[in-house]
Amino acid sequence: MTEPQIRVLLVDDHQVLRDGLRVLLEGEEDMVVVAEAGTGKDALRLALEIRPDVIVMDLGLPDGNGIEIIREIRKQLSPARIVVLTMYSDRELVMRALEAGSEGFVPKSSAHTDLLQAIRIVHQGQRYLHPVAATAVVNGMLDKQEGSQLLKMLSERETEVLRYTAMGFTSRDIGDRLALSPKTVDTYRQRAMNKLDLQTRADVIRIALRARLLDVSDLTD
Length: 221
What we know:
Elements: E1 6-11, H1 15-26, E2 31-37, H2 40-49, E3 54-57, E4 60-61, E5 64-65, H3 66-75, E6 81-86, H4 91-100, E7 104-107, H5 111-123, E8 128-129, H6 131-151, H7 156-167, H8 171-178, H9 182-196, H10 201-210
Parallel strand pairs: 1-2, 1-3, 3-6, 6-7, 7-8
Antiparallel strand pairs: 4-5
Helix pairs in contact: 2-3, 4-6, 6-10, 7-9, 7-10, 8-9
């Protein structure tokens, strides 16, 4: 008795790429493309209506961020496993995709060599990370550990002031939030920066991101 085929939903706003992926997948005996979507809205609808086994999804969609679509699919309790297929593999993007609920990450440049394996592995209930993505995750963990160790040098108040500074708030804004005078805020900030040998707000942002005190979405101009 033959095993049932892995039912795949393709999500990418480029028809030519979807056509190529369909040819690649349907050349395999254990896979079939059951639907395609070019927008996040259609991806969410098809994920719930068709209930594919695996969703292969780009993150750059015309009607929204693919990360948010992944979160919404998970929120709707779709059982589908999700493989992110994107041209970008920076550390922050990989971490956000995994945290949103994806199980696999493959750069588009490696689709022809790694996508089939990724689909099979996530379908079995495991995770698949291309070496580029795996390296990004490991480096992110090491940076987080290093950043956390550095923050142990600070008091709770100094940490709070540093976080709000990284987010772009003024001394007066921070003081209003923490019931402190602007002058006291300046003192806490300078003390924290001296302890960590930081010179600029860019240095503060770097440490805050590494220690996961904030996400890039928290940053203001």
